[in-house]
Amino acid sequence: MAEHHWAGIIIFLLGICGVTFNSVVIIFLKKAKSLANPFRILTVNQAVTDIINSTVFSFIIAPTVFFTFALPFEVTARLGQLLFLAYDCCSWSHLMITLNRFTFTFFPFDYAEVFTRFSTMLYVLLIWALAICINFYEYAYIDCHFFLPIGAWNFDFKGGPECKVVEWYLNYCRNMILTAVIACLDIAIIQDVASNGNKWRMQRQEFFLLAQAMLQSTIFYIELVCCYNIGALPFMASPWAQFGLRTVAWVSTHAADGLITLLCNGDFRRMMYRRLFPNPDQVKKLNSSKLTLSVNFPIEVAGGRPHSG
After folding, report:
1. What's the confidence (pLDDT) of residue 273?
2. In whole angstroms, what is the distance from residue 54 CA to residue 127 CA?
3. CB contact at 8 A, 261 and 23
4. Which of 64, 133, 182, 277 has its Cα between 20 and 30 A from that of 150?
């Protein structure tokens, strides 16, 4: 197979992982009863944005790269605009999840008022409204486009002098600052929790939620460094290096985002553990119930009426 075939396959597989992990997050959180409604709402919103990114890459970009389709510039530019819209909403969802933990830790008596179900839904709507306004300004009002060149494996920026401002200041710097703010809030929470050993032991679930926020902000920071910093180095100019540092880093980040959410949820870990390592007593009980059911189930006899076996 040619190199572009392998690139298309890699994009597809990573995108499918992202769609699968984040879809499981949404399905599982709808059934989870151990998490507060505000956290569930924010996490589901985050998973939706990850699914948007993963879907675009797996079902549109992957076939385009694999079959070397010549998509019109306007089409790929609108896809790039959608990718950044979902990316910004995802980043701000991470910030709101961290603020949720921060408020719960430092202002426990105000938490119930700040993060009600209604207010959290309002925060989500504001995230999308703000992201849409900024996205329209950056990629419609300003002469700047994030598009996929014909035959390329990576999206790139194209436009006038203002496009560099969008690329480096309105995107890179904004997201780096956002990631730094999330990291600072996480560190403050860690210091507060570590100063109280009893609280640490009593709220083990809170520890995993905090670990989730830290891991997710870390992978987004690594992705930014790969795309903008390492990818700009002269000795990283080869097609595969650029592909790994940009497209693979982008798609992997959104796939890992959903996986981290699942692994840091205690109910999900326990459910998977029971599926992989079932209790022998429960298995025997289940088999016994199945046997009883099969014995007492009506059986049709040829030429006669049904009777119990």
Report:
1. 75
2. 20
3. no
4. 133
Write out the two tokens for 17.
């992982």
Q: What is the pLDDT of residue 296?
A: 37
Sequence-ordered list of residues with C-beta below 8 angstroms from that of 94, at least 6 positions apart, any chain: 46, 182, 213, 216, 217, 220
CA atoms of 132 and 87, how far apart (whole Å): 11
Residue pLDDT, tens place only, 1-50: 899 999 999 999 999 999 999 999 998 888 776 566 888 899 999 999 99
Beta bridge partners of 156: 147
Residue 69 Rama label (left phi>0; alpha psi -120 to 50; beta): beta
Write out the two tokens for 19.
């769609």
- Scanning the structure block, which residue is given the tokens 């553990």? 273
SS3 77: helix
Nearest to residue 40, comparing CAs of 121, 128, 109? 121
